[in-house]
Input
Amino acid sequence: MLIAGFPAGAWGTNCYVVAPAAGEECVIIDPGHQATRGVEETLKKHRLKPVAVVLTHGHIDHVASVVPVCGAHDVPAWIHPEDRFMMSDPEKALGRSLGAQLMGELTVGEPSDVKELTDGAKLALAGMELTVSHAPGHTRGSVTFGMPEAGDIPPLLFSGDLLFAGSIGRTDFPGGSHADMLESLARVCLPLDDSTVVLPGHNEHTTIGRERATNPYLRQVAAGLGDGFTSPRRGM
Output
């Protein structure tokens, strides 16, 4: 399997291009702010043909390049229906102050072909299977994408802004909920095998086993301690 990731734009959003192998079809995950050049360079380097863009949530730092990427390759974008409005209305998604600043410097909108994600769906794309888990907390429509073990590649979880190495996503934007975040961690992350690799992990990838042992938020959920922690105010 080929997994090519790079940080994009001012927020360093983790964008991924995923394919069974070089020279084959691929899926693009979270092409955010200023991701277009990195996407095109990755496709050219590995001789890849995209078949879809899939989005873990609708914040502008994850979707800002959706329109040019989808348009250039005539592919659909998949997003949860509760976050779909964010592609064309970042002001509503992020709050008036921050959203208004971004609207002044970005061209936003929906691509011509938008498909909606549902909890538990299994997307068969580019010869791979991605399992969708609705994971609200960071946004109402946040999702994760799980992939099963394949050869020497362990099971994977593209977690969006749900789970990072030692941390979780922030919940202080409109639509965020710390209680929902903890419920999503319990339902989506805790049942996974310890060997599951979590992407992104900020500066390093991590595993569910490592986070189960060291991440205070996941430990809190596993111990059933309730809503005693507040989410970190990190990035978007």
User: Anything to note?
Assistant: The helical segments are 36-46, 60-63, 66-73, 90-94, 96-103, 178-189, 208-214, 216-223. The two ends are 29 Å apart (CA to CA). The mean pLDDT is 88.
